[in-house]
C-alpha cells in the first residue's frame, strides 16, 4: 500500500545497503577476482620481475653473512661497514653498497642453504621461497578465518608497496609473516609449544615478535609465555654454538640498543616514517643530517618520546581481556597487538608492513562476522593508505614533511580503529593500579635512558669538521699539507676524498683506506675489487706508479720508506712489511695474532691492534723484538695513532659497550679519555701534536660516522 515501507517476500524490511548488497552479489566474485589478478600482475611487473633480474640492496647483506658463516669466517666484524664492503668486493658481488647494521645475526640463517650458489641465483631461489611463504600464509589464514581464500588474497595483494619492496630487496618479512601466522594457527588450537616456537623463530629474525611474551604474561597465559621464552633461549644457545659468542654478545650489547633508539641508518629520515624519526627531526640537532630541528632540545625528546610510546601501549594493555578465552576477542587482540608492535617500531621501512596482512585479515574477518561493513571499509582504506603512501610526491617544506610521514598518520588512525573495537570488548577494571605503576616506571626509566643517550650531543656537534661533499660515512681522516684526506661512503661506492671534496685517486674500484707519509709526498690507497685488495702508492700529483698486491688497511712510515699492511685469511688478519720500491713483503707477527690495524711511530717502531685470546688489545713492536702489550687495562682497545712528536698515542677503548676516544702518554702510560657519549668513536689520527681528528657516529646511524677533532691537554 502507498506510504508503507516496502517488504521482502519473507516479510522483513530491507535497507538501501541490503538492497545494494543483493544487487552486486552476483558480480562481486568477478570483481574480487579481477582486482586480485590486477594486483598480482602489478606485483609481478613492479616487484618480482625486476627483483629476478638484479640484486638491488638488501639481499646481498644476508647473503654475505650467510656465506661467511658457511665458509668458516669469524662473524665479529659483520657490523663493520668497510670490512663487509671489502668482502663484497673480493667476492665480486655486483652491488654498490652493503651493510648489516641493525640486523640480527640469526637473520642470515635462512639464506645459508642458498649461499652455495652465486648471489643472483640465491636471490632467485629466495624469491621462490618467499612466494611459497606467502601462499602458505594465505592458506593458514584461510583455516583460521571465514572470509574465504579469495578475499584473503585480495587483502594480501592490497599491500602494494610493502610486498613490492619485500620482493624487490629480498627482505625477510614474508618469513616473519609466515611465522606469526603459524604461531596464531597453533594458538587457536591450544598448541602452546608450537605457538611459542613460531614466535621465537620470528623474533630471532626480527626482534619485535619477542614482545609477544608481554602479551602472554599480561593475560596470564603462562604456558604460552614459558614455551616462547624456552624456545628463544634454545635458539640463543644454538646461536652461541653456531654463530659464536662474540657476534651474539656484540649484537646484544652494542647493536640492539642503538637499533631500539632508531639509530641504525639515518635516524632523521622520513623514509622510515616512524615516531622516532619524527621526534629526531623535531628535537635533535645534527650538523649534516638535521641542521634545522623545530626545537633544539634533547630533553624534550627524552620526555615526549617515552610518553608517545606509552600512548600506544597503555590503552592496548588496558583493554586486553584476562578472562576465559573467547575466540573473536582474542582474534582482535592478536591483530591489534601485532599492529601495535609495528607502530612502535623505531625503524619501520615499508617492507616491515608486510606483516600487517596478518592484522588486517583477522580484523576484516571479525568485522564481517559482526556485519560492521562500514568499519571494515574504513580499516581497509587506512590499510591501503599505509600500503601506497610511498608513492606520494616528495619535496621540501612543512606540507611535504607531513606527506612524507603519511604512513605514520595512517597507521595511527588504524590504531584508533583497533582501540575502539577492543574497548568495547574489555574494560580496564581492577588492573588500573598495576598498569599505572608499570607505566610510570617505564616512562621514568625510558626518559632517563634517552637523556643519558643525548647527554654529550652538543659537545660532539661542536667538534665536527665541515666537509664539502656529503657522505653517508666519513672515516679514517689523515692530515696532509693541504688539509684532511679521508674515506667516504658515497652513493656509487667508497672513495678517498680531500677536504675540497675531490678524489685523491681515480678509478672504478672501491677505495677503502688511505695512509699518508708526513715527511714525504706519498700516500697509500687501498683499492678493492673482485681481484682482491691492493695498495696503490700514490704520488703528490695523484698518479700511481706501482702497487702492492694482496694488501689492505695500509700504514706508511713518516719518511715514506716502509709500508705496513694486512693480509686476511678467512677474516683473520696478518701483519706484513714492504718497501714502496717493490721489495718482497715480509710477515712480521705470527698467526696467533688476529691483526685489525697498524700504524708507525715517528721513530719507526710499530703499534698494531690485534685480537688474541678473546681480547682486542694494542701491541708495540720494535725492530728485532717481540710484540708487547702497550695498554695494560682490562678493556678492549684498538686503532692506535702516534702523535708527530712521539709523546702520545691516541686510541679507542670499549667503555660500557661504546667505543670511546682516548690517548696515553708513552713515557708514563697515563691514559686520558676524550669522549663519553652513548655512541662510538673511530679511526683517530693526529692533526698535530696537540689535536686529534677522528670519526664519530653520535646522533647518526650506527657506524655511519662524520669527522670531528678534539684538542688534548697534556
Q: Which percent band covers the strand fraction? A: 15-25%
Measured as a percent range, the helix fraction is: 40-55%
Helix/strand-derived class?
Answer: alpha+beta
Largest sheet properties = 4 strands, antiparallel
Q: For this entry, what is the oligomeric state of its chains?
A: single chain
Structural notes for this entry:
It is a single chain. This protein has about 725 residues and is of the alpha+beta class. The chain is about 45% helix and about 20% strand. A four-stranded antiparallel beta sheet has the order 4-5-6-7. A hairpin with a 5-residue loop joins strand 4 (about 510-515) and strand 5. Helix 14 (about 300-320) packs parallel to helix 19 (about 405-425) and helix 15 runs antiparallel to helix 16 (about 355-370). The chain is elongated, with a radius of gyration of 29 Å.
How are the SSEs placed, and which strands pair?
Elements: H1 16-24, H2 28-53, H3 59-70, H4 81-90, H5 119-144, H6 149-157, H7 160-169, H8 173-188, H9 192-205, H10 212-218, H11 222-242, H12 245-260, H13 275-283, H14 298-319, H15 327-344, H16 356-369, H17 373-388, H18 398-404, H19 406-423, H20 432-453, H21 457-462, E1 473-480, E2 483-490, E3 493-498, E4 510-516, E5 522-529, E6 532-539, E7 544-549, E8 552-556, E9 563-569, E10 572-578, E11 586-587, E12 594-600, E13 606-612, E14 615-621, E15 628-629, E16 637-642, E17 648-655, E18 658-665, E19 671-673, E20 681-688, E21 691-696, E22 706-711
Antiparallel strand pairs: 1-2, 2-3, 4-5, 5-6, 6-7, 8-9, 9-10, 10-11, 12-13, 13-14, 14-15, 16-17, 17-18, 18-19, 20-21, 21-22
Helix pairs in contact: 2-5, 2-6, 2-7, 5-6, 5-8, 8-9, 9-11, 10-11, 11-12, 13-14, 14-15, 14-19, 14-20, 15-16, 15-19, 16-17, 17-19
